[in-house]
Amino acid sequence: PDVHRLIFSHLDGHSLGRAARVCRSWNELSSKTPQLWRSLCNRHGWDTKMNTPPAGCDWKWLYCCRSRVFRKGESRNGLGYSKRNDQYEMFGEWRNDQLDGVGVVMDDNG
Q: Which terminus of the chain has fewer CB atoms gathered within 10 Å of its CB, N or C?
């Protein structure tokens, strides 16, 4: 597993997600190694302004939300990220353009 963890640490998010679907042991490794997903967030320069993900979430969830940006006028459904007026960010689970389920709203102060 240490060799796999080292290799996985060099993958981008899409490739890591695909590797997790190869077999059960790779899925467990990617799921139970939160530093893989946290380092992906850091590689993208995403300042999450928090040391841990929101309650009930993990770094993989946070990465998946932040990697899908909803454009202005686009219907927001599923996991994703939206920024309003350069003042605050909203990311999480969306349904019919509303945060639904787990979501995070952060202003410039964190």
A: C
Segment 44-67 shows an average pLDDT of 74
Residue type, 52: T
Token pair 């993958």: residue: 11
B/e letters for 75-92, b = 16+ CB within 10 Å, e = fewer, are: ebeebbbbeeeeeebbbb
Q: pLDDT, tens digit, for every residue of 60-81?
A: 888 888 788 887 778 888 888 8
CB 44 within 8 A of CB 73: no
25 — pLDDT class (breaks 50, 70, 90):
very high
- Long-range contacts, stretch 51-58, CB < 8 angstroms, 24+ apart: 54/102, 54/104, 56/102, 57/102, 58/34
